[in-house]
Amino acid sequence: MSDLRWGQNVCRMQVLIANFTEFQLATVFTFLLHETVFFLSGLPSLLFERFGLFAKYKIQKKSNTSAYQNRCVLRLILYHVCVNLPVMIFSYPAFKFMGLRSSLPLPRWVLETVEAHSGYHFPWSPSNFLPLYGGSDFHDYHHRVLYTKSGNYASTFVYMDWLFGTDKDYRKVKAIEEKEEGKKNM
Fold this sequence. Notes:
- By secondary structure, the chain is mostly helical.
- The protein has two domains: 1-105, no CATH class; 121-186, no CATH class.
- The chain contains seven helices and no strands.
């Protein structure tokens, strides 16, 4: 049975390769695939907030209205279409010149991106088990200080923050938040 599925997947890939150019597959098809995975896998986080689920795991304690969430999603789509897609299209010749090839399936970094931007830090979050992964909590801080010349490297390069000392402010903020949380629970 698994051989049959593998054969069907190979056949689907051959149909794509036969009907679309490498440029189309590497740019438009990859973009559409990325957008589908990005927004569908981010949908649970959106619904968690909209319906108040898992609020105790939410990193930013402010509550966003449905209108604000809708505006945010529309801005994300606009940004992805107006920035990411053109970058993919115009960088394709350079990548091809360097000998890089496109590959399917979708890279793991798309799922990491969704987790890092979820806005939730669950007990089962990968950052609780992977020491060099900062996860959504660290990434949220990255967005808070993005334009302050902090040098914070986001969720996947936490070792760089440790090397350059740019995680010190994050650690201070976390200590203060834990102290305040401890006072509330007394």
